[in-house]
Design brief:
- This protein has a 7-stranded mixed β-sheet with strand order 4-3-5-9-8-7-6, with helices on both faces. Strands 1-2 form a two-stranded antiparallel ribbon.
- A hairpin with a 2-residue loop joins strand 6 and strand 7 (220-230).
- It has helices spanning 7-15, 18-37, 42-69, 73-77, 80-96, 109-130, 163-171, 188-195, 199-205, 271-274, 282-314, 324-354, 364-430, 443-464; strands spanning 135-136, 139-140, 148-153, 157-161, 176-181, 213-217, 220-230, 242-252, 255-260.
- Mean pLDDT is 75; it is low at 99-107 and 130-145.
- The protein is α+β, with helices and mostly antiparallel strands.
């Protein structure tokens, strides 16, 4: 993220996107010019005015909010296209704020002229919006400017190196580790030439639909991993939010290159874990360090998921979060996705330890360390299955509870129905009243028999347990 980037600035840029403003500008042109060319009813003119006001208000908010978040502001204000934005807002203000005391202002030729000027300004704005230049803070941003290189070797670390320096380090005979972060699609050609790897392979490995895996190619090997992290959220959130970004590690002889589109998970040098293999090659120590770091991230994720499921299990029936089933289903989906990653991670270690070129020539001590990592990955995979089973048990328990509650309600309805049968039958036999009836019975006796029969029915249902 740029040092000047703030949550408010990100929200402004995301809300008032180029696409949204282009679409609003296209909508505003007919809403402005059609009332000047064709006669409309008063209701239609009001609708056109409302559309104009709403869109112009959005234009004004976009201009002033982006002016506030821009650094420096004066550079944003003097940029020609932003001057055009301000002109559109001012012309609209003259249109909708009739400050001139002229009779018939709303239909005056001056108003028509201002509206036509606004149409021309909107046309220019659309040209600006669809132009390919990426303008931020008034200055074009060159493609690939976000890519950064950190170069590590036995002698030390060089932070934020240049592409040329990375090429020299990669071509040098010494063993190096190049950590590349902030990669964009425009950088693929340069990375392809740096590592002599086809572009389509790099693009496929950095795609979002990959799983952890190992691929051996002539002259190099590629390990694909996920950089899984928790997003910052409130402690009261029922389900943790986990982001997954692809990262790959490329081995070319004694060198290792790690690539990620976002911030690198290895910005802080992970060489400390590699000290466990003091007599091993530099690239193998780096690989062990990278995998050790990611295993720690996966452990943290599953520990958090396990605590979340346990908290849902411990919650009483009276204090379950709203939409409990939706919450558990969402949590199960997250667990299942992380389970896919751990299962593929186990296969990755199997490939490394069996016939991969990466560990060829490694000592038995080093292979034992990688076997230990493989055991940790297998334990995480088993833990994921346990957590998923617990989530399934929560869903099954809640469904059974709902089914039990429905059965209880149905029992109560059955009791009410059976009790209502008694007065219904007696009332049907005796009619509406007792006058001129051949039966020698009074209303008090009828009430007594009805209530007695209903109480007997209640006692029977009570003994059967339907009222508990």
């Amino acid at each position: 993220m740029n040092k000047q980037e703030t949550p408010f600035r990100s929200w402004v840029m995301r809300t008032f996107s180029e696409r949204l403003m282009t679409e609003l500008a296209l909508l505003l042109i007919p809403a402005t010019i059609l009332p000047l060319l064709f006669p409309f009813s008063r209701v239609s003119l009001v609708i056109f005015d409302v559309i104009n006001i709403l869109i112009v208000v959005i234009f004004a908010l976009e201009y002033f909010l982006k002016l506030i978040v821009s650094k420096p502001r004066w550079k944003y204000a003097i940029e020609p296209w932003h001057i055009l934005d301000l002109l559109i807002v001012l012309l609209a203000a003259l249109d909708f704020l009739p400050i001139l005391p002229v009779k018939g202002w709303r239909a005056s030729p001056l108003l028509r002229l201002l509206r036509l000027l606004r149409v021309f300004a909107l046309t220019g704005r659309i040209v600006k919006r669809v132009s390919p230049a990426d303008v931020v803070d008034g200055a074009p941003r060159p493609a690939g400017s976000g890519m950064r290189f950190d170069i590590s070797s036995e002698t030390g670390v060089r932070k934020d190196a240049l592409l040329e320096t990375a090429k020299e380090a990669h071509d040098s005979p010494g063993a190096t580790w190049i950590d590349i972060r902030g990669i964009s699609d425009a950088d693929m050609e340069g990375l392809s030439s740096l590592m002599a790897i086809p572009v389509h392979i790099l693009e496929s490995k950095l795609a979002q639909d990959n799983f952890p895996g190992l691929d051996d190619f002539p002259g190099y090997s590629i390990i694909a991993l996920w950089d899984s992290k928790f997003e910052e959220c409130s402690d009261s959130a029922a389900v943790p939010i986990i982001t997954n970004s692809p990262i790959i590690a490329v081995f070319t002889g004694t060198d290792i290159v790690s690539l990620s589109k976002g911030d690198s998970p290895f910005k802080d040098s992970p060489l400390q874990a590699g000290h466990e293999l003091p007599r091993e090659l530099f690239s193998i120590r780096i690989l062990y360090s990278l995998l050790k770091r990611k295993m720690g991230d996966y452990k943290e994720i599953f520990s958090r998921l396990e605590r979340t499921v346990a908290a849902l299990e411990d919650s009483s029936s009276d204090h379950k979060p709203p939409k409990f089933l939706d919450t558990v289903f969402h949590l199960k989906k997250i667990i299942q996705k992380q389970g896919y990653n751990t299962a593929h991670l186990v296969r990755l270690f199997d490939g490394l330890l069996k016939d991969s070129n990466v560990l060829r020539g490694a000592s038995e001590e080093s292979r034992a360390s990688f076997i230990a990592l493989r055991s940790e990955a297998k334990a995480l995979d088993d833990l994921c299955l346990t957590i998923r089973d617990n989530a399934d048990s929560l869903i099954e328990l809640q469904l059974n509870k709902v089914s039990f509650d429905i059965n209880r309600v149905m029992k109560i309805l059955a009791v009410i129905t059976c009790l209502a049968v008694v007065p219904t039958i007696i009332g049907g036999l005796l009619g509406q009243n007792l006058k001129d009836q051949p039966y020698n019975i009074t209303i008090h006796e009828i009430f007594f028999f009805v209530i007695s029969l209903m109480l007997i029915g209640l006692y029977i249902f009570y003994r059967k347990g339907w009222l508990k």
